[in-house]
Amino acid sequence: MAKHGKNYRAFLEQLDRDRAYEPQEAVKLLKENAFAKFDETVELHIRTGLDTRHADQQLRGTILLPNGLGKSQRVIVFAEGEAARIAEQAGADVVGADDLVKKIEGGWLEFDIALANREMMGKVGRLGRVLGPRGLMPNPRTNTVVDADDLPKAIQEAKQGRVEFRTDRTALVHVPIGKVSFTEEALLENLSALVDAIVRERPGGAKGQFVKSVILTSTMGPSIKLDVAPTLALGAGTGV
Q1: CA 162 centroid distance within chain
Q2: Please, what is the Cα angle at 163 between 97 and 219, to 5 degrees?
Q3: Which of 38, 158, 224, 238 is most buried, taking the most CB atoms under 10 A from its CB?
């Protein structure tokens, strides 16, 4: 078992491990006890009741967090011709076509979000094995495959803090919602927007309880269990 430092242990002593906290109290605890020398990322982890072996129980979507993520996302765009010119003018960090595909095939992955002009998907498709497992593959369902005219908006939103949420093989969802330097209000607004988006995207084949548990944590801190009902109440969903 990994050994934790005194600051981590001190934080842990303040937590009642058998208790589920109200979101407001959990955010306050997390901020007051942040001890790392860098601005830690705050994450939300949700356990769903989905059976991801079934196609009609796949959860996937995107959300533009109202207060962003606290950093500028590195955005690449697969495009050529006029679409490439539009992407470059809109502020994409890297724009390319066959050259960018080959660069990624060679192991380059220094970016956070990949967008693709619709006409490029025939070439981008061969990167599925590389980008898919990392959640970086452009996909129409996540608004990362777009027409040339929509590239400026897509690039701007990606840089501002649009995040993707999806279930992994164990039906868990892991999503960053900001930095510990954010105000409590900003973190709660991001949390609320994310929960609302997830509940709205509940798959049609979902059965029983959709959201089973919710955990709030930071890069270096311990996990804080949230009370599911008031957490879902922050958004518009019911969670049933």
Answers
A1: 8
A2: 115
A3: 158
SS3 18: coil
Condensed to tens digits (0 to 9), the pLDDT of residues 137-161 reads 999 988 899 999 999 999 998 888 8
- 2 assigned to some structural domain: no
Angle 205-208-214 from CA coordinates, rounded to 5°: 105
Q: Rounded to an integer, what distance in angstroms lies between the CA atom of residue 194 and that of residue 184?
A: 15
**How many other C-beta atoms are found inside a 10 Å radius of the C-beta of residue 198?**
25
Is 50 exceeded by the pLDDT of residue 237? no
Could you report the per-residue pLDDT of 20-42, keeping only the tens digit for each?
999 999 999 999 888 888 999 99
Q: Do 106 and 156 have their domain in common?
A: yes
Does residue 207 fall inside a structural domain?
Answer: yes
Q: Which two tokens stand for residue 199?
A: 């509940």
Residue 48 belongs to domain with CATH number:
3.30.190.20
Q: Which pTM does this prediction carry?
A: 0.77
Distances (CA, A) of 74 to 77, 91, 112, 136, 180: 10, 10, 5, 12, 21
Q: Which domain holds residue 86?
A: 75-160
Count structural domains, the chain: 2
User: In this structure, is residue 186 part of a structural domain?
Assistant: yes
| Domain-ending residue, one of 138, 160, 182 | 160
